[in-house]
Amino acid sequence: MTEPDVVIVGAGPVGLTLAIDLAWRGIDVTVVETRARAEPPEPKCNHVAARTMEIFRRLGLAEKVRNAGLPADYPHDISYRTTFTGQELTRIKIPCRRDRFTVKDGPDGDWPTPEPPHRINQIFLEPILFEHAAAQPRITIINRTSAEDVVVEDHSAHLCLRDLDSGTERRLSCRFLIGCDGARSVVRKAIGAEFAGDAVVQRVQSTYIRAPDLIDRQQHEPAWGTGSINPRRAGMVYAIDGRERWLVHNYMKPDEGDFETVDRDACIRTILGVGADFKYDIISKEDWFGRRLIAEKFRRGCAFIAGDAAHIWVPYAGYGMNAGIADAMNLSWLLAAHLNGWAPASILDAYEAERWPITSQVSRFAMSHAEAEIRRRGAVPETIEDSGAVGEQARREVGRLTYEINVRQYACAGLNFGSYYDRSPIIAYDGSAHPAYTMDGYTPSTVPGCRTPHLWCKNGKSLYDAMGEGYTLLRFDPAADVAALETAARKRGVPLKVLDVEQPTTDQASTGHPTAAIFCGSGLVLSRPDQHVAWRGDRQPADPLALIDRIRGAANQVR
């Protein structure tokens, strides 16, 4: 086998998206995966965040992803009830995929993006990514193969590939090695990175079941996610196919034993609100620990880690897989910049400098939310299922608090769009403060390091669709002279597209184009390949070459 430039260990959503993006940027990639081709993944992630959907849009995958999963008219709501088949306490309204682009009201209805989030289980998402990756001539996927005996050096990595069917082994070397191989990552161990944080925040006895009769036993309209709240048991039920398959999370109590000492069948029936005569089949057991663990480093030499190999946290806001894909997209363009020859190896220092702080921020949001939910679960009034005024009052109060806590994780615009890079070696900061953000709220901004705000152009097209695959200089004044900046980019080989954007008027910004307000007064905004702001100014900089060298990771090198 010819030695590849990049080897990715792990063909889950993070590894596959990374491979697809690298190939899109002209890089040959080899992916090593222990599972067989077409072997289904565990039914874990249920949510593709808006930021991830923006990535899939750029890669030509958004429509296919959005058309998969639940039936088109199946509500993506989250309903909280006394049991799955019991009385509804509150409902978080989220449009079904048929109505995703037309329904604008509700907490999740009007995202500042061309691609709002999508509820789809990993068992449907991953095959789409695998099929697309396998069709790319620049991607080689090696299934039923284990990566072992990993040795990481400064400029190359070496590993043993063991065929899990035949037992045969062969050595492989590569310029760059990326571990997208989960919590037990062999690559993380090879770079000597230890997890630190909270080892157990909660324990969840999770069961993937087939129950065709369950959907018709509900008193209320179906929902993508259904929370069960009663004094006996707290749980969550997710619709997988909108017909007969369900994932049942049983949130175990602190004083309960291990997963198998708790009566799984009794807990499932309590959460569902069904008797002993109800029939269902267990497809698989998916028990898990909620943790908040972050690797002390994300890189050593030529090896990197991303996704669960780098961080694990309580999966509130559905952001585990999505944060891993954000890692992958950050690393992808940095690697491609170096391998394509327009950036020195020092640009790769930006990966850990940018992603580690974000990981810490996001994990604490999830941790804080988990703690609030755990407190709520421990304070369910005994009267919640009573008839009469006392029961109705209890249900109203629990419903109000439950909505208040959980609407933030299910309509999490802040996590999608608010995070920023504030200590990057490849961003030209101007001293402006980055707007604070929460799980559900943020302020669009062109402060360097922030996500480039999305804007619908006058022709009705997305600003993101008009950007180039490299850097894009957004010019809001067509008379602004940027020739020197273009010359500097060409001199260094940096891909730069100048995109003239009609400056929104004050009326547009304050009425029909609220996101456009942030661009009012902007002259030039330089957007990176990952759609984060690298620099902004009223006119091109006095030393364009110095700016170009900074954004390509060569600021401290002799020019």
Number of helices: 14
Percent helix? 25-40%
User: Kindly state the mean pLDDT as a whole number?
Assistant: 92
Cα shape: globular
Number of strands: 24
Residue ranges: pLDDT <50 for 5 or more in a row? 505-514
Main β sheet profile: 9 strands, mixed
Ends: how far apart? Answer: 38 Å
CA radius of gyration: 24 Å
Please explain how this structure is put together:
The chain has 559 residues and is α+β, with helices and mostly antiparallel strands. It is 28% helix and 22% strand. A hairpin with a 6-residue loop joins strand 4 (78-81) and strand 5 (88-92). Helix 1 packs parallel to helix 7 (320-339) and helix 12 crosses helix 14 (544-551). The radius of gyration is 24 Å and the shape is globular.
Topology readout:
Layout: E1 6-9, H1 13-24, E2 29-32, E3 47-48, H2 50-58, H3 62-66, E4 78-81, E5 88-92, E6 118-119, H4 122-134, E7 139-142, E8 145-152, E9 157-163, E10 169-174, E11 176-179, H5 186-190, E12 195-210, E13 225-229, E14 234-239, E15 245-251, H6 264-272, E16 281-285, E17 288-295, E18 299-300, E19 303-305, E20 311-313, H7 320-339, H8 349-377, H9 388-410, H10 413-417, H11 463-466, E21 471-475, H12 483-492, E22 496-500, H13 506-510, E23 524-527, E24 533-537, H14 544-551
Parallel strand pairs: 1-2, 1-11, 2-7, 4-13, 11-19, 21-22
Antiparallel strand pairs: 3-6, 4-5, 8-9, 9-10, 12-15, 12-16, 12-17, 13-14, 14-15, 17-20, 18-19, 21-23, 23-24
Helix pairs in contact: 1-4, 1-7, 7-8, 8-9, 12-14
